[in-house]
Amino acid sequence: MILLSVFLAFNFIGFTGSFSSFKNDDILYLPWASDSAMGLRFCYGPLIFLWASDSAMGLRFFYGPPILPWASDSAMGLRFFYGPPILEQSPFFCNLLCNLILAVGNECPTGWTFNPDTSECYTFSARLFTFDESVQYCNSIGGKSVSISSYSERDALVALTKTNILQPWLGAKRNTTTNKFYNLDGTYFYTLMWTTNEPSVNGDCVTFKGASPSGLQVTQCYQLQPAFCKQTPALCNSAVVGGPNTWSGTFQSPGYPIQYYNNLDCRYLINSPNNTFITVTFYPFLIEEWYDSVDIYEGNSTSYANWIGQPSSYSSGRGFESSGNMMNVRFKTNYAITDKGWLATWKAKKDMPVITQSGTNGTMTSPNYPNNYDTYDEQVYQISVAYGMQVNLTIDDFRTESKYDYLNIYNSSVQSNSTLVYTLSGTSVAPFNWISPRSYMSMKFVSDGVIQYKGWHAFWSYC
Q1: What is the per-residue pLDDT across 78-104, written as a single tens digit (0 to 9) for each?
Q2: SS3 166
Q3: Edge-to-edge strand list for the sheet holding 455-462
Q4: Per the structure, how many domains does the chain have?
């Protein structure tokens, strides 16, 4: 992967200056497979650079205002550009490089071009077709005729077609009954995207004019024009994770930890064993806030009635919990700006009701005692005595897997780090005695999935 090699070379060389400070010896050479005077640039493979200008010397614009300065404009062969982007100092270049590295992959079938702004694959036909033939052609190669779904896609199509001699067909035509135009795929038809003096009465089908003034142009449906096709690549890593015997796992956004794509709608269905519920945390979590989102739902659903919550870059690490053994996570992105993404960690927990005792005395044990406790236990115990009294707790038998299976003791009815007073584990705990400072206390017993012992036995009274 040539761009990845370039990226590594940048880091090894260790440039830290501005672009203007580099000498000729510092110039990096990028080999190009073609050098048309305007339009497409192929970098040894599927990646296509679309340039908005082609001056003989100086500035190159890549999809808008960000600028890459070039040192030469040879008619064929090598392109020189002034040194490496300073990633730590330039968010644009970092974002650009990440998008380029992603684009070198196999997002699209052979012969198709991936566009990182729309997250779609595009191709033109070498042959010319009538409108109806172009629709059939696109369908026959696994795509559909291009219908413009957003202004960002319109801009991308301008870059793709501005040097074309013949305007390609779009998947749009006139409804001769209503005299209104519509997209064949049912998406919204943008009436403000016509080129100058359009729509005319000169036909019922639509081609795309990339040269300025760019836009949609009415064309006779019988004319012979190139087919213009697109298909959505499988960018999502949607998956069903977990299963009836799986208690934990991880999943992540597409492209993590480099960069995710625009226009995603990915689903992750988590299943856990029967009689369990699921907890999930997201860390790291870096997305475009307000525009890209992760939503968590109860069960195999994405309805608002089953919505659990939404993590945020401002509260990374927050956990979410289902009530049953199935959870659905949906990751959606808009048409612009991406980030590194996220890593999710999930765990299944047994649905074990809290054991509560009150009065003057009682006994408590680990599950199944004196037989071995189960795997993945998470049992909570609550003890309370009369107001003004204290709980006197004694453990006379204790045997667990050291470090991994443990009993936490809290000086409150709430289990938290601030109320935790003891963590007991291993085979050298008993006898153990503790008196609570209040008239209530709680305990939590946790076991993992590997080794089980008989657990523990405790009795309590008030004092």
Answers
A1: 333 333 333 333 334 444 444 444 434
A2: coil
A3: 361-365, 455-462, 391-399, 432-435
A4: 4
